[in-house]
Write a structure and sequence with these properties.
Beta-galactosidase, Chain A, domain 5, 33 strands, single chain
Length: 690
């Protein structure tokens, strides 16, 4: 039996000096707080300043904002017509002549920083020159961040945690500076921003903060930012009300300063609860509920600890202790931290953004082609309920997906790619032409069902499965003898002219698998199959010179730039998918060509586990491990566990890499001999992949 406490805690991030590129976060899956070495967000500017900086944000999955001049919808967009086997289909790919509309629809709505919480000294900002990082530990077993630091020559200890079921941050500060009445905590509200930092502190006139109540133990504030409205309630003990600035009703510059009373205790306990009231992007409007009592810090810490102990004791585990391979400890560290990071950022009712709830990437919108890489691992690690939460998003946006398909002359439901909670598609020269995410709902639902077979679940997702398959069947161009996945579309490898892409192998085989799987779903429900014959009529993936091509009209896949850059997605049809239409020897030779010529700096974080899955299915276990641990700019894992995409300033973290790593490791760990002989492997609670 695996000692899970030892497995988890031996990978607690422990810092002894400043690490601006790898700050630590606490969260509950729908709300996340990222802190600097002080345990709060004292040095927001310093962390966010570099081009590749790692912002310190407070974010919730409901935290969406739109600028007041945001376009209401995409109905006014001029579409570019693409010939589609003799008929024209329009796509919003060209910004020329409609730049403002195009920009507005891309930038709105966006996630925003709910409120910056940091230390001040007697109401004045601290500087890195006057503060020194000490020992900082993220206790993964208890979900609590413990920060020891120095302000001048005086020590300060901060404990930071998030309630497991509420969007509430709890903070305990201990220092003689608290009892001296000098060390304060400032809550400062920014205006929402589509940029990576999700915050704009330069336009105080564009938003309002109103005091709604004040008592001896709490302060209530209401925030209004264009159509977005939310409430922040502060609870405290050991607080001197004298530190609340005059004019609190208007809160100049949207800042509230709280501190300990001179001559009082050395410990200050604070709680910050964030609640949504009106979020247009979620079509959410609700009146404030009655004020809920805060837990004491001790009770909040106990609740947090109980949740995390339960989380780690349930689900799957992989333990490499005793391994002779020097890579084993680092792989184990990445897996443990990836479980934590996906737990605090990717367990909500929406698919996550690439940067989760840490900061903005692509305005905080989620990309449905990444949903698989973000969340499929939950089913394999025995946490299927977490995947089911975001899977339900497809039910919510099914009417919009039907509308997209119908507007283009297709049947069924065509899922948007880059979207907001309402499923509104975002114009893009690439996104609207992508296709490979269409079978994802079938895949994710199937993984859920295999982990926990249930007839009610079959019925619940019948329409999603059926209408997804209907779109795929109608997108394929059928002749009497065969079906082709033809233009226009952009394959997962985003390097190709959409007007000539024909039978990209991953899309081709994913469509085949999805159509077959839809029939299996119908048969489980006692219904007649509909799509199997069509699946068999799809052509086979094309190859040349001993390797599968990027697509049928790309004979120079391994010879000419840019065709051997970006995702080598032809490998996915025999890693992500178990296609029996693939010649394993030919696929193995294709993998060899990728390893020989592919531009590794252009790979993305999920490419490494994807390639490892292919190598594993081919029986090349040593290669699978080499690929998982390959030294490459986009396969870098920071001390906080995040998969930094070096070379992409927009992505100081990349959760699809973490999710992909968990997926590949579970796939390999669920069977004997899945890892090299140099690894000693103990596993518990893993479910087999396809």
């Amino acid at each position: 039996m695996i000692d899970r406490y030892d497995l988890v805690t031996r990978h607690n991030p422990v810092y002894s000096n400043l690490k601006k590129d790898a700050p630590l976060s606490v969260g509950n899956g729908t709300f996340c707080f990222t802190a600097d070495f002080t345990g709060l967000q004292t040095f927001f500017d310093a962390y966010a300043a570099p081009d590749d900086g790692f912002p310190l944000c407070t974010m919730a999955e409901w935290g969406w904002h739109s600028y007041p001049d945001a376009a209401p919808d995409a109905s006014a967009l001029r579409l570019t017509p693409f010939d589609t086997y003799g008929r024209e289909v329009g796509y919003a790919v060209d910004a020329r002549g409609q730049e403002e509309l195009f920009r507005s629809l891309r930038q709105n709505p966006h996630k925003f920083h709910l409120g910056n919480i940091g230390f001040t000294l007697a109401g004045k900002p601290l500087t890195l020159d006057t503060c020194k990082a000490g020992k900082q530990t993220l206790n993964l077993w208890e979900g609590c961040l413990h920060s020891e630091w120095m302000l001048g020559d005086i020590p300060v200890v901060t404990e930071t945690l998030v309630h497991p079921f509420e969007d509430t941050l709890y903070v305990r500060v201990t220092s003689s500076l608290v009892s001296a009445g000098k060390l304060h905590v400032a809550l400062c509200f920014p205006y929402g921003s589509h940029h990576k930092s999700a915050a704009d502190f330069t336009v105080p006139q564009r938003h309002t903060t109103v005091l709604t109540h004040k008592s001896a133990q709490s302060i209530g504030l209401e925030r209004m930012m264009d159509g977005t409205r939310y409430r922040v309630t502060l609870g405290f003990t050991g607080l001197s009300m004298d530190t609340v600035p005059a004019g609190v009703g208007s809160l100049p510059a949207h800042t509230l300063i709280l501190g300990g009373q001179a001559g009082g205790p050395e410990t200050l306990d604070l709680a910050f609860r964030f609640e949504s009231l009106s979020i247009p992007a979620m079509e959410l409007v609700r009146e404030p509920e009655a004020e809920k009592k805060f837990l004491s810090f001790t009770h909040a810490k106990d609740a947090c600890s109980t949740f995390w102990k339960t989380y780690w004791m349930s689900g799957g585990a992989i333990d490499y202790s005793g391994s002779k391979d020097s890579r084993a400890p680092e792989l184990e560290r990445r897996l443990v931290l990836s479980q934590y990071l996906t737990a605090i950022q990717s367990r909500g009712i929406f698919p996550p953004a690439e940067t989760g709830l840490t900061c903005n990437s692509w305005y905080g919108k989620f990309h449905l082609e990444m949903h698989y890489w973000h969340s499929a691992h939950f089913a394999l690690w025995g946490r299927t309920s977490e995947l089911k939460k975001s899977l339900a998003y497809y039910k919510k946006i099914l009417p919009r997906a039907r509308s997209i398909a119908a507007s283009q002359g297709y049947q069924g439901a065509r899922w948007p790619k880059m979207c907001d909670p309402r499923g509104c598609n975002t114009p893009s020269s690439i996104a609207v032409l992508l296709l490979w995410h269409q079978p994802h709902p079938i895949m994710l639902a199937e993984l859920c069902y295999r982990a926990s077979p249930d007839e009610d679940f079959l019925r619940e997702y019948r329409d999603i499965i059926l209408e997804t398959a209907e779109f795929m069947a109608s997108f394929v161009h059928w002749t009497e003898t065969e079906g082709v996945v033809g233009p226009p579309y952009i394959p997962a490898q985003e390097r190709h002219d959409p007007t000539i892409v024909l039978n990209a192998p991953y899309e081709l085989e994913y469509f085949r698998w999805g159509l077959r799987q839809a029939d299996r779903w119908l048969l489980r429900l006692g219904e007649a199959p509909r799509f199997g014959e069509l699946a068999e009529k799809l052509v086979l993936p094309r190859y040349k010179d001993g390797g599968y091509l990027a697509h049928e009209n790309c004979p120079d896949t391994f010879k000419a730039m840019p065709f051997y850059t970006d995702h080598p997605s032809m490998l996915a049809m025999y890693g992500v998918l178990p296609s029996e239409k693939i010649d394993p020897a030919l696929m193995s030779a294709t993998l060899d060509q990728v390893l020989a010529v592919w531009d590794r700096e252009s790979l993305w974080g999920w490419d490494f586990p994807m390639m490892a899955m292919t190598a594993y299915r081919l029986g090349r276990v040593e290669d699978a491990m080499d690929l998982l641990m390959l030294e490459s700019p986009k396969n870098t894992y920071l001390p906080n566990g995040h998969n930094k995409q070096i070379g992409s300033n927009a992505l100081p973290l990349y959760l699809p890499g973490n999710g992909g790593l968990l997926l590949a490791a579970a796939m390999m760990g669920a069977s004997k001999g899945g890892f090299p002989k140099s690894f000693t492997v103990h596993t518990e609670g893993l479910h087999a992949y396809l």
